[in-house]
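Backbone shapes recur. Consider a single case.
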Amino acid sequence: MNWLNSEAFTAFDQHILWSDMIGNITGLAALALGWRRSIWSWPVQFLAGLILFGAFYGHLTGSAGKQAIVMVVALYGWWQWNRNKGETGDGHIVPRFATWTERAVMAGAAAAGTVAVALLFKAYPSLSWDPWPDAYIFVGTVVAMYAQARGMVEFWFAWLLVDLVGVPLNFANGYAFSGFVYVIYGALVLWGMRDWWLRSRQGARPALEGAPA
């Protein structure tokens, strides 16, 4: 898969690789499908991880390993949504807010995971070029995907927190193209958050007595 590491085009004085371009496009598609509560969000996320795994395998072991974990979480999400898609008449899952216990567990896991992964990256510098932000974005992505798999509205908040670091980090390091893509991610996150929020309220609204089911 050496062609994935070849140049696709140049933008903002950056040499954009095929792997970056395809990964960004499939990532945007997966997020848009997640907004629509389509189960195909997971195969698209898995495909993005597979492409990037192929691009990184052999010379960027840490990046390849991260993509392998993303693929495992994507398989988990596919399994979860297949189990729960019959909850509504349209074959999609019903969004819900997490309980306070679930929020505490995810927040604790994100904090502990970020510290653990950052220390691993610092111990093995070849795994990451910037350990703490890289660990934060990676762990935040896994937590967001887990929350999405469980149908939690908080999944969008987790993505927003990832974007708040990802956007300035890319611009600060000269990756303007990736930074602009993260801005588009942010817009999709806000729209998706609103949609899931409203749907969760509709799903929780009790039926009026005597009203048709």
Notes: The mean pLDDT is 80. Strands lie at 7-11, 14-17. The chain has seven helices and two strands.
